[in-house]
């Protein structure tokens, strides 16, 4: 494929899974394998949101980790976490990629991807009309909650130890920010 052509799903679907990039604006972006602390935060946040995912109910959320989502023909991403309200998406699809726009996305920053998640992906998520975007920074032990206002992100709030989140779009779950992160190196857990 020529370097100046726009990439689409068809250009990556035949690549081995471990070599599939995200595509934003028709350009491929390969993600590094996440660090252990990054994976820990994703699991902790997923667990904190699990009460909202009760299966068999018409209300609540579908929360998924690292799934391929096509937001437009040249915009295919794999957010760390994504969520869909069950009243808008009664059945969880198993399409690859998923063509249903999530109502919430979350990215956990790593030293090598902060610029990408805060810039490139944030713009794509806004262009796609995703109403809520959380950016979790393990190094700073912070959660930035962004709400889409028109085509721009507005900061709903920035939360850190020892804040508790009971925020939109998840009014039904309270999340202790400090419980998302592993203890700081050299400290012991309570």
Give an overview in words.
With 190 residues, the chain is an alpha+beta fold. The chain has a single domain (35-180), classed as tt1808, chain A. 19% of the residues lie in helices and 29% in strands. It has four helices and twelve strands; from the N terminus they run αββαβββββαβββββα. The strands form three sheets. It has a six-stranded mixed sheet with strand order 3-6-7-8-9-10, sandwiched between helices. It has a four-stranded antiparallel sheet with strand order 2-1-5-4, covered by helices on one side. Strands 11-12 form a two-stranded antiparallel sheet. The N and C termini lie far apart (54 Å).
CATH T-level fold name: tt1808, chain A
According to CATH, the homologous superfamily is: tt1808, chain A
- Helix-strand string: HEEHEEEEEHEEEEEH
Shape: globular
Tally of extended strands? 12
Which regions are unreliable across 5 or more consecutive residues at pLDDT < 50?
A: none
Tally of DSSP helical segments:
4
Strands ordered across the widest β-sheet = 3-6-7-8-9-10
Tell me the β content. 25-35%
Helix content: 10-25%
CATH class: Alpha Beta
Q: How does the major sheet shape up? A: 6 strands, mixed
Number of domains: 1
Calculate the mean pLDDT score and round it.
78
| CATH structural architecture | Alpha-Beta Complex
Class inferred from helices and paired strands: alpha+beta
Query: Rg, please?
Result: 17 Å
């Amino acid at each position: 494929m020529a370097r100046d052509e726009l990439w689409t799903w068809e250009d990556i679907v035949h690549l081995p899974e471990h070599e599939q990039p995200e595509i934003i604006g028709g350009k491929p972006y390969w993600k590094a394998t996440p660090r252990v602390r990054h994976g820990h935060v994703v699991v902790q946040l997923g667990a904190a949101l699990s009460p909202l995912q009760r299966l068999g109910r018409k209300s609540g959320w579908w929360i998924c980790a690292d799934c391929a989502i096509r937001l437009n023909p040249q915009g295919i991403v794999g957010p760390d976490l994504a969520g869909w309200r069950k009243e808008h998406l009664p059945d969880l699809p198993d399409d690859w990629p998923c063509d249903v726009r999530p109502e919430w996305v979350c990215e956990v920053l790593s030293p090598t991807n902060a610029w990408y998640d805060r810039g490139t992906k944030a713009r794509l998520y806004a262009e796609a009309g995703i109403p809520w975007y959380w950016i979790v920074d393990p190094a700073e032990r912070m959660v930035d909650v962004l709400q889409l206002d028109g085509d721009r992100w507005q900061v709903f709030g920035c939360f850190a130890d020892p804040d508790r989140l009971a925020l939109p779009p998840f009014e039904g779950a309270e999340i202790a920010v400090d419980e998302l992160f592993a203890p700081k190196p050299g400290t012991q857990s309570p």
